Every structure is written in C-alpha cells, then in structure tokens.
Amino acid sequence: MVKIVRVDPLNPRDEDIAEAAAVIRSGGLVAFPTETVYGLGADAFNAEASARIFKAKGRPADNPLIVHVSSLDMALELGDMPEKAVEVAKKAWPGPITFVVKKKADLPAVVTAGRPTVALRCPAHPVALKLIEAAGTPIAAPSANKAGRPSPTEASHVAEDLGDSVDLILDAGRTFFGVESTIVDVTREPPVLLRPGPFTVEELKSLLGEVEIPPFARGLGEADVALAPGMKYRHYAPETPLILVDFDLASAVRAARELGLRVAVLCLAGRCADADAAINVGSDLYEIAKNLYDALRRVDKVKVDVALAPTVPERGIGLAIMNRLRKASGFKFAATEEELRRLLRV
Question: Which residues hold ATP (predicted)?
Fold first, then answer.
C-alpha cells in the first residue's frame, strides 16, 4: 500500500519534506500538492525516474511534462526565457502559470517528449516549493492521475488512480484552484495560449500584450502536436458519458429520461434541475473550478447512464472551466433538445 503522509499545507514538518526529497533523489515518485492540482513528481534529470511517470499514468510518450522549479534562477538554468517572460515571471511566480521556452539544460528527452522546448513552472504552494528545494533538483510532474481521468485535487484521488505505482503521497488537503496551470508558449510572437488556467487571459494580456488564443485552447478540438500538457488526447473525463448543454436543463433531463436513461446533473452557478443525481459544483466561477474534478469523479459513483453539465461564461477562469468541460465531454455539446436527443441515441 502506498505511504500517505499528512502535512500542514502552510508549514510542513522538515522531516516529512526530507523523506519525500530522499524518494525523489533515489529515483522514486512522489505525489505532492500544488495550488492547482496534485502532481506526480520525479527528478527531472533522471530519465528512468521520469519514464516511470509515463508508465504509472499510462501517458502517451509524446505528451511532455512540466518541470517545476523553486525559483526564477533555477528556471533560467533550464530554459532560455525571453526578457518579456522573465518580467512576467518576476510578477507572477510563484503562481499558476507555465512558460514554454527553448530548453537550455540537458534534460532527458523523455521529459520534453524529444522537443527543443521545455515547460517551466514555479508553484505557489509551500509544500511543493520546500520539496523542490530539499530535493536539490527540478521536479518533472504532470497531474497525479491516470491519463484521461479527472485530475486529482485531493490525496485520495491520487491513491484511487495510481495506488502502489507511487512511492509516497504528501497529503495537504484539497488544492486551492482545482484546475491546472495556465500554459503560454513564449517562443512565438505574439505568445500563444496553449492551455487556460487560473492565471487568466485578461491577466496575461495586461502583462504580455497581445496573446493568441487558438481554438484548442478554448477546448474546441485537439492540437495536432502536444507542445505542452492538455493540448492533445482526451483529458479530465469521467467514465460516465458527459454532455454539455446550453439550453434549459430541466428540458434536457426530461429528454434523457424519455429515452429511459438515468441522469446526473452538474449544478453550476445556480443552473440545476431535478435529476437522478444532482451534484452541486459551485455558485461562482472560482468555486466551480475548485470543485469541478471532484464532481466529475462523483459522477461515476452515482451510477447513472449520462451526465449533463450547463455551460459557464468564458471570462476569467471560466475559460479554463469550459476548456476542461469540453474535453471531459469528448466535445459533445447540445444547444437544443433535438441535438441532445441525437447525441443520446448514438
């Protein structure tokens, strides 16, 4: 059974951090909290350890990892960050923003999926920062879940998905934001948003100026090439089919029930309906983001045939929420009852 160590999220014990750091240095895997989701970490310079991440998750080899650092100085040793990105990092790090830059250090190809770029982030979580510092090495870490599943926002989610494939889990309770970091490619001009997250587009534009937002960043399809996590392949999905609806939820539930289906509804920002299971996710966008992945996991526990989720405004962190919901649904969307019935009959 995987060892789970409960830690204070603000002031973890030195001996607990030291134990986890020793696992990292010895080539092991540690699941640790960040302000976004739990990460599955390995020494970024250890190719064999980093390869274990892919095996544990069932992650495609062409999907690169984010390398977590404890300081801007550490990041500058690993990648060639443009001056504009450095200035943003000085203001936004530690924080939920990842920069894709040209790699400088001799990182293993498994970490970068053989690409000339590397994704770098300095997390805003005391446990994560202390772990990186104690390990004395940058830590490569995707989300600590099986590939394609909702990301873990609690240690129990990690244990549920990965079990003994992890050597140690640092349990600091529920994560703060609940969705993964914003990723921006600063090797191009203008910079390109690869994945929306808690660091909003509005904030990005205030610091970087123009930012390109391709369709896949909104969750409207997949990218052809995975320059960073979350761009390619299905992500965040429950096993239960999920459909996004943008019309009256009560009518949507009625249509599904008329086809003999048991229905769960994700209740978002006051939009809800009487169903076989109604899962309250939150009343405002930040609360919805924080609870979204736990709600998607709960969908599978209520034993229904289909789950329905309303849309949310794509402003602020709402863009990240819609990105995750579109991908979790496999891009299944109904704007009318007729469209929903057609999807339910497939």
Answer: 59, 63, 117, 143, 151, 195, 236
pLDDT in tens, 169-179: 999 999 999 99
157 is in an annotated binding site: no
Is 34 annotated for ligand binding? no
List pLDDT tens digits, range 177-226.
Answer: 999 999 999 999 999 999 999 999 999 999 999 999 999 898 887 656 55
Q: Would the annotation count 151 as a binding residue?
A: yes
The answer to whether 36 is annotated as binding is: yes
Annotated binding-site residue? 326: no
Task: Count the Cβ atoms, other than its own, within 10 Å of residue 109.
Answer: 13
One-character DSSP codes across 271-295: B----SEEEEEESSHHHHHHHHHHH
The helix (H) or strand (E) run that includes residue 89 is helix 83-92
Asked whether residue 233 is marked as a ligand-binding residue, the answer is: no
Structure tokens at 156: 């129990």
Q: Judge whether 128 is annotated as a binding position.
A: no
| Polymer length in residues for the chain | 346
Distance (Å) of CA 44 to CA 26, 64, 66, 138? 12, 12, 9, 6
| Dihedral over Cα of 245, 329, 166, 71: its sign | negative
315 is in an annotated binding site: no
143 annotated as ligand-binding: yes
Residues 6+ apart with CB under 8 A from 203: 92
